[in-house]
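Worked example

This section walks through a single chain of length 215. The input is the sequence exactly as stored; nothing has been trimmed or padded.
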Amino acid sequence: MSTNAKIRVMLVDDHAVVRVGFRVLLEMSGEVEVVGEAESGEIAYRDFARIQPDVAIMDLSMPGMGGIETVRRLLARDRSARILVLSAHEDSAHPRRVLKAGALGYLSKRGAPEELLDAVRAVAAGRIYLEAEIARKLALHDLAAPGQSIESLSEREFAVFIKLARGESVHAIAQTLSLSPNTVGTHLYNIKQKLGAGNQAELTLIAVRNGLIET
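Given that input, the structure is written out below as tokens.
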């Protein structure tokens, strides 16, 4: 991307109204050109190489494989991909997982509109961007005593955990994440052991208490 060129952005969100709002907000700046849109992670993964955006702005909570899995798959195929994740979640677990998956930025959807442009500029330049409140929560988490049970989950277990907590079935999760039902069942067993949960309802309660899903 040359110094004077507009930042080429791909919007990935399952809500068309949200995509329209982001498109208007970004293009009004005169610095950004929205060159592609996708309503799911699957479509984003399919079209990313063809569109070749400077930055992909991706919703975290989408039907299908969802944001974190999409980030992981995009970066497995293209390590140079620059991804900014937007989410309604303001906990520390989600941004930690997103950054570990390889995204460069994490921004709350409740943040100020002008911060979105700041985040896009930073990610396009290859810099990590976290809004101040989320960065504070991450720092406080790192200072807290060890033993946070959710942190004991592997990346794959965390992805399965969130889907289970949202009420998805083992077979649906297996299909979405391209796993066998037996593998998902093994993950479920391990998740229950690590979190001390007896059933799916308790997993949902743990996720809600930790701010990982919305009620």
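What to look for: DSSP finds ten helices and six strands in the chain.
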